[in-house]
UniProtKB/TrEMBL annotation:
Protein name: Cytochrome c class I
Transmembrane regions listed in the UniProt entry: 102-124
GO molecular function, one term: iron ion binding
Domain Cytochrome c: 151-225, 249-325
UniProt entry tagged with the keyword Cytoplasm: no
UniProt KW 4Fe-4S keyword: no
Annotated source species: Oceanithermus profundus (strain DSM 14977 / NBRC 100410 / VKM B-2274 / 506)
Coiled coil spans: none
Keywords: Electron transport, Heme, Iron, Membrane, Metal-binding, Transmembrane, Transmembrane helix, Transport
């Protein structure tokens, strides 16, 4: 369960009143399409988080429950005399629909997958850097005079430290999120601003940032280059020498706590879902301090658990996720947790 969701509102077409408001899982909606006219419609799903952030999904779909009625026994223009008997033939709601097509949920998931793959390509593929340069150079030059194109790297560093460093690393070297230092996506102002404003994949939206702050952030990341942030990442990846000393009792306690408070978002198998990253096979869990800080203090949309669990329990959760699903990074002690509170 995502404890940070305040409500989910579902709107149909241009209606100002929500079709349904969901405040607790399971977040399921049943839409009886027989109650709305055949033809194109729009479903708008608005998720409001307790921190004030809002995410919106718009889904276009078409209802086709009934074919047009037709008259059997009386032709258009036919001459008749006396009593006439004919039948009005209409469709059947229960009749199975023919033809293929994706369901609404399938269409949304497909769109998210395609957009994620496109973003991943332009952000990390070596050949994409030249494509971004060629296709993005003219718009960037034309916008140079606009406020969003005149970023202040010094101001952007402050924005990055406050909003981005906990996921992407103190020096943009990568953490739970990908490395941004020297990433080609930083070179494309429009794509960069869109991802920051709207989020993508596991990254939440930062709609509260102004255009100028996004321009400052982009200027700062552009100033880092590709190699400046690599050294800290190497230093921050400790070798899992203590992995053999993991206590099975601590692992068992950590598993129970994880299933109670974490599995609703990160999944029981650590595979992650939506904006919550996978923990299985996640090399960033080698950073013990990062894991402790994230469990204690959270990071939107993830809540913190400092007020819910004591040092022993936090240590058990950290130990469990660092040594499950292919991870082998060793234990975390209650004293290490206490030092981070």
């Amino acid at each position: 369960m995502n404890q940070n969701i305040e409500r989910i509102e579902v709107f149909l077409d241009e209606s100002k009143e929500p079709l349904q408001v969901l405040t607790s899982p399971p977040f399921k909606v049943t839409l009886d399409t027989r109650q709305i006219p055949d033809g194109p419609h729009t479903l708008r799903v608005v998720t409001t988080f307790k921190g004030g952030q809002v995410e919106e999904e718009v889904i276009d779909f078409e209802v086709d429950n009934l074919p047009s009625p037709f008259i059997d026994g009386l032709d258009d223009g036919q001459q008749v005399r006396g009593p006439v008997e004919f039948e009005v033939v209409t469709g059947d709601y229960a009749a199975p629909k023919t033809g293929g097509g994706l369901s609404i949920v399938g269409a949304v998931l497909s769109a998210v997958l395609v957009l994620g793959l496109v973003w991943f390509y332009f952000a990390f593929a070596p050949s994409a850097k030249e494509i971004v340069k060629e296709t993005g150079a003219a718009p960037v030059e034309e916008a140079a005079a606009a406020p969003a194109g005149a970023g202040d790297a010094a101001a952007g560093k402050a924005v990055y430290a406050a909003q981005c460093a906990s996921c992407h690393g103190a020096n943009a070297e990568g953490g739970f999120g990908p490395a941004l230092a020297g990433a080609p996506i930083v070179e494309n102002a429009d794509q960069f601003a869109s991802i920051v404003k709207n989020g993508l994949g596991a990254m939440p939206p930062f709609a509260q940032l102004s255009d100028q702050e996004i321009a400052d952030l982009r200027a700062y990341l552009g100033s880092l280059g590709g190699g400046a942030a690599e050294a800290p990442k190497e230093e921050a990846a400790p070798a899992p020498a203590a992995a053999a000393a993991v206590d099975p009792a601590v692992m068992s306690e950590g598993e129970n706590l994880y299933l109670a408070s974490c599995a609703g978002c990160h999944q029981p198998n650590g595979a992650g879902v939506a904006t919550f990253p996978a923990l299985a096979g996640n090399k960033n869990l080698a950073d013990k301090d990062l894991v402790i800080d994230r469990i204690l203090n959270g990071k939107v949309p993830m809540p913190g658990f400092a007020g819910q669990y004591d040092d022993q329990q936090i240590a058990a959760i950290a130990t469990y996720i660092r040594n499950s699903w292919g991870n082998d990074f060793g234990p975390v002690s209650p004293d290490e947790v206490a030092a981070k509170r």
